[in-house]
Automatic annotation (TrEMBL):
Transmembrane segments: none
Keywords, comma-separated and alphabetical: Activator, Signal
UniProt-listed InterPro entries: Ada-like_dom_sf, Ada_DNA_repair_Zn-bd
Organism annotation: Megamonas rupellensis
A molecular function GO annotation: methyltransferase activity
Keyword Signal: yes
Leader sequence residues: 1-28
Domain named Ada DNA repair metal-binding: residues: 37-78
Protein name: Ada DNA repair metal-binding domain-containing protein
Pfam short name (any one): Ada_Zn_binding
GO BP terms in the entry: DNA repair; regulation of DNA-templated transcription
């Protein structure tokens, strides 16, 4: 009986960890800019989709984009 309770607890904990990791990944926001401009965008912005992959620069936060001198796009307003 004790083994079965331990197994159920392990399954519940594993499920919770998986859900939390999925939530963390889903809420992580990535921003994109171009080495040819000073604007940064949400990755799904219509202007971001026009960035040449060779010129793409990715930022993990708005603060990081600002620190490199980028300004928010006026269309997607990241």
């Amino acid at each position: 009986m004790f083994k079965q309770t331990k197994k159920k607890t392990a399954i519940i904990l594993l499920t919770l960890v998986t859900l939390l990791m999925t939530l963390n990944i889903a809420t992580a926001t990535t921003y994109i800019g171009s080495s040819q401009s000073n604007k940064f965008h949400y990755t799904d912005c219509r202007w971001a989709k026009k960035i040449n992959p060779g010129n793409a620069i990715y930022f993990s936060s708005r603060e990081e984009a600002f620190s490199y001198g980028y300004v928010p796009c006026k269309v997607c307003k990241p």
